[in-house]
Amino acid sequence: MKELSSSQIRQMYLDFFEQHGHKIMPSASLVPVDDPTLLWINSGVATMKKYFDGSVVPDNPRMTSSQKSIRTNDIENVGRTARHHTLFEMLGNFSVGDYFKPEAIHWAWELLTGDQWFGFDPDKLYITVYPKDNDAKEQWLDAGVAPDHILAAEDNFWDIGQGPSGPDSEIFYDRGQAMNNVAEDDPENYPGGENERYLEIWNIVFSQFNHTPEGTYEPLPHKNIDTGMGLERLVSVFQHAKTNFETDLFLPIIRATEQLSDGKHYGDNAADDVSFKIIADHARAVTFAIGDGALPSNEGRGYVIRRLIRRAILNGKKLGINEAFLYQLVPVVGKIMQSHYPEVLEQADYIAGVIHSEEDRFNVTLDTGLSLLNDTIAATKAAGNTQLAGTDAFKLFDTYGFPIELTTEYASDEGLGVDQAGFKAAMEEQRQRARNARSSAKSMGVQRALLTDIKTPSQYVGYTQLTVDHAKLMDIIVNEALVDEAKEKNETAELIFDQTPFYAEMGGQVADTGTVLDEDGNEVAEVTDVQHAPNGQNLHTVKLTGTLKKNATYKLIVNQMRHRKIEKNHSATHLLDQSLRNVLGDHTSQAGSLVEPNYLRFDFTHFGQVTQADLRKVEQMVNDQIFAELTVKTVETDLATAKKMGAIAMFSEKYGKTVRVVSMGDFNVEFCGGDHVANTNEIGLFKIVSETGVGAGVRRIEAVTAAEAFDFLNNEEVLLQQTADLVKSQQVKEVPHKVAALQTDIKQLENEQTALQAKMASQQAANAFTNIEEINGAKVIAQAVQVAGMGQLRQLADDWKQSLPSDVLVLATAADGKANLLVAVAPNLVKTGIKAGDLIKAIAPAINGGGGGRPDMAQAGGKNPEGIDTALTQAKHWLVDAIK
User: Fold this and answer.
1) Annotated binding site
2) CA-wise closest residue to 793 among 818, 777, 812, 775
3) pTM of the predicted model as reported, rounded to 2 decimal places
4) What positions does the entry give for Zn(2+) binding (predicted)?
5) 809 near 823, Cβ under 8 Å?
6) Full 3-state SS string of 201-267
């Protein structure tokens, strides 16, 4: 067998299909674009959905890619099995309505066995087919596969619900019995069985049916090919590795981790090997995820990243690594993947910085979590229970990142078990919440064959004119059928003209609206929306007010005032994008946008908060470009020339051979197909309205321009004038001084109130400290007092310490529907083992609360003031048992 590196294998696959007319597609961002059904890009076909469901017709129906992907449904298995990963690469070749089974099967066999290509021994390859798919079986036989190497399998049918589906063929490589984990006579020892001998390396899906909403399977108008070959598995075959981890994709990371560990070596100990594998896998996943704009957080994608980082840290501790280390593996990952993903090394410093910050944060959290775990164990034992509650174990997992295995291990050391069933129930509740929160949008649409088949040429002319006098109506669609005439008033129709000034929604810019007039000047339709048809035409959705006829000519009029406002906001978005990069750093990139007539919304990636000072700088920078009256130029050129111009690719758009580049002076150059002003001075004014966080590492700015910005500032001035009236200021400029004076007055009143409360507390102390009981020879004060809250209770405790009228002090107070408890113990009693923290934990449940503290003083808060008397009584009973 050939000796090939992972980079060579990946490139050979792509080269093979390029030679067979496929376009090599770049690996898309792991963060899905315009797909609410996915948390991550989880396969090669996930990026092809718009082509497979017919919503977009690709330039080339043959495509191939090596797509980075993340799957998180079985993180717990990563490191414990040979081939589970969070991040993996999926090699794939795709046909959208072009070639089908004969070409897909013959090319697959050529790639696998051809001497110029992979050169596998045909005797080591086995194929499975769907029992009813005789066509596939015949094609495999024709390609040269031995009959006894083709097996039928009932589960060889790819179906994810509504949308394209069909039979598939899986290809297995026989690694020999020496690689197997089952006996030679085991019933699972066959291609497709649960064994390590026959390794599935490729799945070829023959997408030939539409799974309809009614649950039927109808023939697809355009049949597709969708294949997936896991690069990590394939590399393990070429490099004779028992698992994926002994390949050049993972071993350099493992070797680097060995250098950071406490003398540990991969292969010496099975438990350590699991930790090495987990770290290697998670280092790759978080590096790529952060590089694609996702950031650690407590929700969504950010939660996945945070969980992976924490799991890696905990496994690092098992290897004796007690300092931040994961960030040091980022350049190692970048070097391994450099041939196909050079951007990882380019962003290595930023990625490492994010990971390092998260590691430092978790090391603090870890200490807190360990403290909570120890308290939970102690409380469980004190209550006489033999196992930790599943809800407690889940809290440790969910809040502090403690894997259930670690909690179980710690509990076992203390002679306790863990309620695994309760933990799993809590986990399932969380998963159900996540499923419910996820969009119910369909994962892949049913093909609209009608639109896919319409290839009528249509030209957008709205860059230079907003009215077309003689636009020929090429196609009319009503109720999913082509018609020659539409005349029902208020009926909805879809129209394609040979030329149009109406912009179709794209890149965040909303669609134009307007009217359609006949040759006599009568309005015949109102344009309410414009979208791109699968073959790129502007598809106008209209509400009929008259009669439309195919091949007739019409006057198309865009709502110019609305369009001009959209132009202003779109150009302002470009200025904002560049200003954010200039102020916050080059790591900042667009994560989405919306350009409406009355406002703009811009989402961007950024780790951490954006300060008010930075926002002011950004806003000022945008306005500086507006006032500088920069000329806005647009040119159409090839992709390479555009990149040499320094043009920034917006979002995750795919660009064709010819691209449109918009430049605003020397300040900003970007790829963009939208509409813009001719000069930045047309924007007039820019004002940020709000800045918020909207997700894991994603911030959102909403802003207004021109008249809306003027109105916003006017409204602000009105509010300021109202404030001036309230503080009795003659001039607006005096408001800050007046407010400062009021704050001084309030502070003085608060100080006086505090002094009065302290005086009242002293009076309470004089009364409380005289009510002394004796319990087993110890003096005890246990009393409810009327003070302002915990602060006043601590003041009473300080007064008590000065004279120590008793050995134990237990105070309680109720205020604003809440209860507070405080316990103090004199030094002489602390020495005998009586601890304030133990007592407070015993009585806090009476007020539905919890707390803790030092041996000499502890406190608790709760939401049940009615339980104060019970708490005081329980305190006395506890002291009877504790003081001997």
Assistant:
1) 570, 574, 672, 676
2) 812
3) 0.69
4) 570, 574, 672, 676
5) yes
6) EEEEEEEEEEECCCCCEEEEEEEEEEEEEEHHHHHHHHCCCCCHHHCCCCHHHHHHHHHHCCCCCCC
Q: What is the DSSP letter of 147?
A: G
State the amino acid at position 774 in one-letter form.
Answer: E
State the greatest distance between any 2 C-alpha atoms of the chain, in Å, as a whole number.
109
How far, in Å, CA of 870 to CA of 872, rounded? 6
Using 50, 70 and 90 to split pLDDT, how confident is the model at 437? very low
C-alpha 677/C-alpha 662 separation (Å) is: 11
Beta-bridge mates of residue 824 = 809, 857
- Binding region for Zn(2+): 570, 574, 672, 676
SS3 of residue 332 by DSSP: helix
Q: 157-162: long-range contacts (C-beta < 8 A, 24 or more apart)?
A: 157/130, 158/203, 158/205, 158/207, 158/226, 159/211, 160/443, 160/444, 161/211, 161/442, 161/443, 162/211, 162/212, 162/213, 162/442, 162/443, 162/444, 162/445, 162/446
Mean pLDDT of 45-74: 88
Provide the H-helix boundaries in 518-675.
560-584, 612-627, 639-644
**How far is it, in rounded angstroms, from Cα 551 to Cα 556?**
15
Q: Where are the alpha helices (DSSP H) in 727-769?
A: 735-768
Q: How far is CA 759 from CA 752, 783, 827, in A?
A: 11, 19, 27
Q: Which residue has the tokens 């694609």?
A: 292
Q: What's the rounded Cα separation, in Å, for the pair 863 and 849?
A: 7
Between 697 and 422, the higher pLDDT residue = 422
- 785 φ, ψ to 5°? -130, 160
pLDDT at 332 over 80: yes
198: helix, strand or coil: strand
The partner residues of 562 in beta bridges, in order of sequence, read: none
Q: What are φ and ψ of residue 860, in 5° steps?
A: -150, 150
Measure the CA–CA gap between 672 and 244, rounded to whole angstroms: 42
Tokens matching residue 170: 């899986």
Model confidence at 755, in pLDDT bands (50, 70, 90)?
A: confident
DSSP 266-312: TTS-HHHHHHHHHHHHHHHHHHHHHHTT----SSHHHHHHHHHHHHH
Whether 52 and 45 have beta carbons less than 8 Å apart is answered as yes
Rounded Cα distance, 781 and 812, in Å: 11
Query: Does residue 272 contact residue 302 with C-beta atoms inside 8 Å?
Result: no
pLDDT for res 614: 96
Q: Which of 222, 226, 228 is nearest to 55 (CA)?
A: 222
DSSP-derived secondary structure for 436-452? HHS--S-SSPPP-HHHH
Tokens linked to 829: 């009693």
Distances (CA, A) of 161 to 9, 117, 165, 435: 33, 36, 8, 16
* Helix ranges restricted to H, 804-835: 827-830
Q: What is the mean pLDDT of residues 347-376?
A: 84
- Domains of the chain (ranges; CATH) run 6-247 (3.30.930.10), 286-437 (no CATH), 449-558 (2.40.30.130), 569-717 (3.30.980.10), 757-882 (3.10.310.40)
Q: What is the pLDDT of residue 166?
A: 93
How big is the CA angle at 242 (ends 345 and 277), to the nearest 5 degrees? 45
* Contact by Cβ (8 Å): 442, 163: yes
Q: How confident is the model at residue 695 (pLDDT cuts 50, 70, 90)?
A: low
Contacts with 39 (C-beta within 8 Å, 6 or more apart), sequence order = 32, 72, 300, 301, 304, 438
Of 595, 602, 596, the closest CA to residue 579 belongs to: 602
Contact of 842 with 836, CB cutoff 8 Å: no
Contacts of 114 (CB under 8 A, 6+ apart): none
